[in-house]
Design brief:
alpha+beta, Immunoglobulin-like, five-stranded antiparallel sheet
Length: 213
């Protein structure tokens, strides 16, 4: 046990020295990777990616009106023991009226694969894990443990078409530039997306209209 704790201490010290080197700071900026220390562990050279697909809603067409997103967060060097985090997905402003409906939470399905210290495990999100705010979806993750490097991978789907089937008059405005989504791992559910950390991923849809008539 003493050797284990000593090893963790040495790794943390090495990590702090690694961050302080000017050359390494420049490398992090070039690759858009950063270091961060939060209540959910220490991460060095962390990065996040978000990609997805939006299938526009067409009245009467089954399985139309769906958002499928894949998010990945990685840290080359990280330390955490039973750390709690949330997956936070920023909802485009155009979807705010859909998100206000009680059915919105039930329209969300997803899972996350997370490190356990001895490998990885996959958790299917339940309704109890999900909290809806005006501009974001917060999904509570299981506690994760990691010593050297970590990776989280999540798949989320939002069946907004099922809500439009019931409430066809709910508007979703078009956006000529595409709909902007963002996702991040954080212990703070109300994190400011304008001051986000290194695990943020962004995705802009190719589709400019969520509803086709």
């Amino acid at each position: 046990m003493k050797k284990y704790l000593a090893g963790l201490g040495a790794l943390a010290v090495a990590g702090s020295l690694f961050v302080s080197q000017p050359g390494d700071v420049m490398a992090q900026e070039n690759t858009k990777q950063r270091s961060e220390i939060g209540t959910y562990g220490l991460s060095l050279l962390a990065s996040g990616e978000l990609e997805g697909r939006l299938t526009p809603y067409i009245l009467g067409v089954p399985k139309s009106g769906n958002i499928a997103a894949h998010y990945t967060a990685k840290s080359i060097v990280s330390i955490g023991l039973f750390d709690q985090s949330n997956l936070i997905v920023k909802i485009p402003d155009e979807f705010k009226y859909v998100a206000l409906q009680d059915e919105f939470k039930r329209a969300i399905k997803g899972s996350i694969t997370y490190p356990t210290g001895l490998g990885s495990a996959t958790h299917e999100y339940t309704a109890g894990d999900i909290t809806i705010y005006a501009d974001r979806i917060v999904l509570k993750n299981p506690k994760a443990s990691y010593i050297i490097g970590s990776k989280f991978s999540a798949d989320i789907s939002i069946d907004y078409g099922s809500i439009l089937d019931k409430y066809p008059n709910i508007p979703i405005d078009e956006n000529p530039s595409g709909y902007s989504f963002a996702a991040v791992l954080s212990d703070n559910a109300m994190i400011d997306f304008n001051l986000i950390g290194s695990k943020e991923g962004k995705w802009v849809t190719e589709e400019t209209a969520a509803i086709r008539k």
